[in-house]
Amino acid sequence: xxxxxxxxxxxxxxxxxxxxxxxxxxxxxxxxxxxxxxxxxxxxxxxxxxxxxxxxxxxxxxxxxxxxxxxxxxxxxxxxxxxxxxxxxxxxxxxxxxxxxxxxxxxxxxxxxxxxxxxxxxxxxxxxxxxxxxxxxxxxxxxxxxxxxxxxxxxxxxxxxxxxxxxxxxxxxxxxxxxxxxxxxxxxxxxxxxxxxxxxxxxxxxxxxxxxxxxxxxxxxxxxxxxxxxxxxxxxxxxxxxxxxxxxxxxxxxxxxxxxxxxxxxxxxxxxxxxxxxxxxxxxxxxxxxxxxxxxxxxxxxxxxxxxxxxxxxxxxxxxxxxxxxxxxxxxxxxxxxxxxxxxxxxxxxxxxxxxxxxxxxxxxxxxxxxxxxxxxxxxxxxxxxxxxxxxxxxxxxxxxxxxxxxxxxxxxxxxxxxxxxxxxxxxxxxxxxxxxxxxxxxxxxxxxxxxxxxxxxxxxxxxxxxxxxxxxxxxxxxxxxxxxxxxxxxxxxxxxxxxxxxxxxxxxxxxxxxxxxxxxxxxxxxxxxxxxxxxxxxxxxxxxxxxxxxxxxxxxxxxxxxxxxxxxxxxxxxxxxxxxxxxxxxxxxxxxxxxxxxxxxxxxxxxxxxxxxxxxxx
Length: 619
What we know:
Layout lengths: L2 H28 L2 H14 L5 H13 L3 H10 L5 H13 L3 H13 L6 H14 L2 H13 L6 H13 L3 H10 L5 H13 L3 H10 L5 H13 L3 H13 L6 H14 L2 H13 L6 H13 L3 H10 L5 H13 L3 H10 L5 H14 L2 H13 L7 H13 L3 H10 L6 H14 L2 H14 L4 H13 L3 H14 L7 E6 L2 E6 L8 H16 L16 H9 L2 H12 L7 E5 L5 H13 L4 E4 L4 E5 L2 E2 L6
Parallel strand pairs: 3-4
Antiparallel strand pairs: 1-2, 1-3, 4-5, 5-6
Helix pairs in contact: 1-2, 1-3, 2-3, 3-4, 3-5, 4-5, 5-6, 5-7, 7-8, 7-9, 9-10, 9-11, 10-11, 11-12, 11-13, 12-13, 13-14, 13-15, 14-15, 15-16, 15-17, 16-17, 17-18, 17-19, 18-19, 19-20, 19-21, 20-21, 21-22, 21-23, 22-23, 23-24, 23-25, 24-25, 25-26, 25-27, 26-27, 27-28, 29-31
């Protein structure tokens, strides 16, 4: 071979040797296992399989691609392992959740006369924080102290982030207070940690102390409010973020959309949709799926349908979200039609379509779908599916079939299933079976307020006032309070909230005057207060007063005061199931005042038009 050819070959091999590590790193980032294996084959063919730089890159590639056994095989063949190699192998175990192997490898590392440094500990702590592995995190913290490892700002941040990620906010706060300089990353971790354990005020306190805030920090605080069921604060913070010049990303918008869905504020929902379009997120699949859910929960089914219809790309979540939208609005036929167009429904899709059948009384159809899920789609039923079937039978007054299903299902019934049976018994007056279901429910959740209320109401209907007193005394002793009914209504982008017999609103006098007017007009067309829904030991006149002051009636009257006939529907959100009297009240009001009224209660929507309800009085 000529010298020039030899030199060219040598240069080519030299180039190949230094090309493999970045190529393998690229395969790691892309999780491209097939390409990574092909590169490994070429490495062996060219004789670089014992090059430490290439071997280290191979360990990283296999670890990232979840082939931890192959990563370990390469690692064990290495004759030279520096601190970087050990760190990459440890990171591979961390990514695969194999923390016991991490601790064993740390001991091997020290036996090989390689002392773990701050970088290695940071890798492990970061993984512990993400997975909530407090036990290993504490072991690592102990090793850092025992070995007098100098904790730089990155390692200190990792310790705080680990404790915050595991929900140990006292330890996280103690370390955080000792930091001389609090960087964005660690402050954001504290915000997320406090939000995760429900201490959103503490999260906000840290947020307010930060002088510089980036997008991740703003998003963490917005997400904290959204997940803590404080949607109004989340939406307000979005406005502040934009005013400060920070543009939201998809993650931020998903939190904001979720907050708006929980709030049920349609005007806000439309504004958020405009923001989505302005920032050009309208083609983002997760954002569109969230918009479908948001519009559905804000009572605007046409909005959900519009988003779904213009989507050029849809996945199973898109279809399932739209089916669920039809289901909660009582459009069972539309839900079923969409379901039949699907090619590959998943188990959540079946929950949505069974829910649609349940709330429309389609027992036979529900049974067929449940059977097809098992026999045609090979999906094993979960508790959620059995819960839907119990609810389906219960609402249709086929309570014995519901009970038989509960007793024969292959897993133990949970609180939701016993609650569904109990609720069905309340609707159909089967109080003995309901009492049985309530007591089973209390065995699983001794502080379930709904079960105590059911028992109290059950005894009250039978005028067993002594038993009523016992139940209420037990609730008082355990500190269990009945969830208070409240209703919200959105007027001119502001949310107004009402409790039963609430007089705290600044327009209370006008609202109560309007209520008197509404009641008077409804009585002229046959309305009579249904005092049967009031289960307290008072005289009939007092019961009438109680039932007329339910929160949704007050919200309706405020809506009638502040909006004009011919404008958009009056939207009301109720935290509990709407009672029979309020349901009849809304139907008559829609006819007398010629207004469409939309009420979202605990489980579904009611669209009242011209004296009728979309639920067809089946709820």
